[in-house]
Structures are given as C-alpha cells and as structure tokens.
Amino acid sequence: MKKLILLTFLTFAITAKAQEIKSLTLKDAISYALENKADAKKAKLKVENSEYQIQEVRSRALPQISANGSLTYNPVLQTTFLDSGSFGGEPGTTIQANFGQKWSSVAGVSLTQTIFDQSVFTGLKAARTTREFYQINQQLTEEQVIERVANNYYQVYVQRQNLTVLDSTYINTTKVKNIIKGQYDNGLAKKIDLDRTLVKLSNIDTQRQQVLNAVQIQENALKFYMGMPIETKIEIPQAAFEVSPQSFSEAPNTETRTEFLLMKKQEQLLEFQKKSVMAAYYPTLSLSAGYNYIGQGPQMPWGAKPSDGVYWSDFSSIGLNLRVPIFSGFETRSKVRKADVELRSMKEDLIDTKLSLDLAFANAKTQIDNSLITIQNQKGNAQLAKDVLSNTKNNYIQGLASLTDLLDAENAHTEAQNNYTAAILNYKLAEIQLIKSKGELRTLINN
C-alpha cells in the first residue's frame, strides 16, 4: 500500500513539473538557445576541431619515428655465376654461387625529419587561419540563432495577442447576447437578433480554436529554434514588447560585419591554397636515419646461435634527401592558375556582399520608419474603433442603433486591434534586421 502511495505521489510530482510554466524573456530565450541549440554546439565543436587540424599539420614538421621488423624465408636462393679468377682461381673457369640464406630477419628503427618543405610552412599558416575562420563562423552561427529565436519569439507574441483579442471579443459579444436574450424573453427583441449573436459567438469560437492551434505551432517552432523540449510550457511577459524608436546614426561599417569577416578569412585561406600549390616549385630537403639488426642462417634466426649457423649483425645509415622539381608537364602551373581564378572570384563575392549588407541596412532603416508611422496610425485607429463600439453598444441598448451596426462595430474593433498587433510585429521584425545590419545582434542578450 505504501509503495502504491509513493508511486502515485511521484507520478503526480513528475506531471506537475512537466506542466510547470516557464516564463521567457527574449534574453532568456536567446541564452537558452546559445547553450542548447545543436547549431551553436556544432559551431563550438568546429572551433575545437580546428585545434586538432593545427596539430595534424604541425606533425609534418616534427620527426617521424617508426619501428620495423620482418621475417623472410627463401625456398629458392638466387644463383649467380662468377669468374673464378676474381677469387684467386683459374681464370676462365666459372663457378656457381648462391646469395643470401634460407632465413633472414630484420628489426630496426627509422627516423625522417623534414628540413625544408614550403608546403609544410604554408600549411601551418593556413591551419591557424582555419582556426580563426571557425571562430568567426561560431560567432556568425550564434548570430543566426539569435535572429531566428528573436523572430519566432515576437511571432508567438502576435499569435497570443490575436488570441487575447478574440477572447475579449467573445466576452463582449456574450454580454450583447445576454442583453438581447433578456429583451427577447420580455418580447422586446426578435429571435433572429438572438440567433445572429449566437452565430457570431460560434464563429468567434471557431476562429479562437484556429488561432489557438497557430499559437501552439508557433510556440513549438520557437522551442525548436531554442533547442528546448517541445513539451515545455512557456509564457512571454507582456513588458517585453515595448516599442522604442531606434536611433539612426550614420551607416555602419559593413566590413566589420561577421558575414564580411568570414568571407575575408575564406579569401585568406584561398591565398594559402594558392601558395600551397606554388610550393610544388620549391625543392624539398629531409634528413633520414636508420638503425637495423639482421639475423641470417639456414634456419629461423629467432632464438638461434652461431653454433646453429645463424649470425646476427647490425647496420645503420644517415642521409640527406634532396628533391628538386624540374618539369611536371605544366600540372603545377595549371593548379596555380586555377587557385588564382578561385581567389579572384572570392574578391568579387566580397564586393557583392558589401553591397548586400549596405542594402540590408538601408531597407531596415526604411522599414523602421514606416513601421513607426503605421503603429501610430493603427494605435489611434484601435482607440477610435473602441470608442465607436462603446457608443454603438449604448445606442443599441437605447434602441438608437441596429444589431447590424453593433456587430459591424465589433468586427471593426477586432480588426483594428489585430492590425495594431501586426504593426508591432512588423516593427519588431524590422528592429531585429536593423540591429543585425549594425552587427549588434548580441546586444539582445544584454537587454
């Protein structure tokens, strides 16, 4: 019985925790996304991986040491024929000689050290630039995460505001329905008027269900872009959506934008790629050394002694290896020219990207101006529609306005409120684009 009670309590506790509502400011949502979204995590892993790439290239400049061993059995030994006069015998007489032994075993250590290789030096510089590239890429990825989260955050707000407007409309229409029902019960209103209000309530309820679904879908999208479990319940504080006009300074320096800096690093990498190809024109110099121990005899050398006919001896070597390229069939020249074309293409992309970033700032600035005007107009229009609805409702109660006038006033009020909410959304989305065009998306975390 006690186990059953404990299990019931735990189930209740888990359910309650699952239903706990998490209040999210924009700062909270962005911070959560930067810690949990897969894109942000993968960008950090790429930075970490770049360190290993540097170590991989650096290894080419370090000594390469290896141990080797072999065991060989020769069923048939190579035979050669020699003039016996070379060995003190009678000239002109040929003798037959076998080279080697049936068994041989070699064990040794070899070392190779690069002394000069232009491709290694270029590769080290390129690897460091690759690390810087991934660091900038991480910053760009985080900015993209911030942008997506902020956009979806405001869209959730709009959908919830639409739901609030419908709830308010439903309450007001219910009050009108109750008034008409009272009049109908007293013979002062027609049944068709009561039926029209019931139809109106049914339509509002249907619209509310549609908006409720839209809210859920938009919230799920926000949670996805945050990397948050879909089942988490969230709410967005109303205070987060104040409209504060942005100060317009002179156009920002787009060359400091993350997108532009990333492409500049790509340009540097292409330059190193060209230099790496050109390294094929340079000679290479390396040092090699080896020490080996060899055993030979008529039987397997392992564990055998000279009394068994097996003898062991050592040998070593030290050498310099120089390679000077002379002609490669124009392969290197073709590769260099190909790398140069890619580099020139990147320079054109940089020019186009700068123009694109300048355009984004100009458009965001224009959209902000238009949105502020629209917000002021829609705010005034919403207040006017509210006053018209209030006056029409009073006139209807006094018999000075028709039910059609009242329902039209309600529709106009609902539409005006939705338009005002949509205007705020357009402003907030334009605000994000303006902040992005100024390269200040990370300031959203500090607000």
From TrEMBL:
UniProt GO molecular function: efflux transmembrane transporter activity; porin activity
Family statement drawn from the similarity comment of this UniProt entry: Belongs to the outer membrane factor (OMF) (TC 1.B.17) family.
Primary localisation category: membrane
This protein's record includes keyword Membrane: yes
Signal peptide positions (record): 1-18
GO cellular component labels: cell outer membrane; efflux pump complex
Keyword flag Transmembrane: yes
Cell location: Cell outer membrane
Keywords for the protein's UniProt record, in alphabetical order: Cell outer membrane, Membrane, Signal, Transmembrane, Transmembrane beta strand, Transport
Protein name as annotated: Outer membrane protein TolC
